[in-house]
Amino acid sequence: MSMEEDAEVHTKTGKKSNVLPLWGNERTMNMNNLILTNIQASHYFKMNLYELKTYHEVVDEIYYKVSHLEPWEKGSRKTAGQTGMCGGVRGVGAGGIVSTAYCLLYKLFTLKLTRKQLNGLLTHPDSPFIRGLGFMYIRYTQPPADLWDWYDEFLEDEEELDVKAGGGQVMTIGNMLRHFLTKLEWFSTLFPRIPVPIQQKLERQLSDRFPAPPPGAAAHAAVQRAPERRRDFEEYPEERVPPPPPPRVRRSPSHGRDSPAHKRSRTSPPPNRSVRHKERRSRSRSRDRERERHGDRGRNRDRSSRNGHSRHHKSSKDDHSRHRSHSSRDYASELLKERERQRRERDGSR
Asked: Cross-referenced InterPro entries, in alphabetical order (predicted)?
């Protein structure tokens, strides 16, 4: 073979040619078997997506039907109580309703995308989910050694998308790609495994690209932002927010029960203890005086009530005796009058 023919073959089948290489299993797209079985058996894939024959029709379907990037629809997969190899991340056990995103991802695989079409997905301006499915297509089908070349220029992309079914997990394109390069797990499934040497190389490239901040950098940044925050508070006083409570300081062993400070606090009284003791004693004395006054008042009240009762009882006895003497006196006078009348009658009859 001549050099011209070799160059022509390299142009058609090489890395930069329009024909994309496929890595791994060319029949399953390196997907989990449970997910793939649910895709192929779903009514949406067999009926709706079967009618789509062109790349642009599939892109339009992604635009209208995809709202997240999970493999299962929300609430359709029951993984409660599954452990070990039956856990949710392994993708085995009970299935669910496979998502439209993964059905369309597999539909793209059946179209055998070209490099130009895949680049069109990555830079599509209409929907971040079109771009997201393009990046997932790369993660599932392209050789691990080529992942950095595909993702390099998008690692700092700030476009956001909500990847969770039902919403609640918004991330940027750049953060999602860094997750693809460093993690195998993606919700309830696994990406194809990256060989260890390539994985180590990717982690080194990421650490060089995004170095970790030095220790104390966050505190230094907060000090630098303090004048700006103070100026904002002065300009907009109505937006002031009370500062958060200070963090709880953990006691060191030197402040325990056996520490000198603790012993000193136990042996020596506090500075104003005598004053507080005097005040407490004076308050207790005043309470005792009040209690004695109340007791005297009660005793006087009881004595007066007893005297009044005795006087009332004596007066009632005198009244009763007067009533008895008056009644006996009246009876005697009447008896004398009656005897005098009887005597007169006898004398008159003689």
From this structure: PRP38
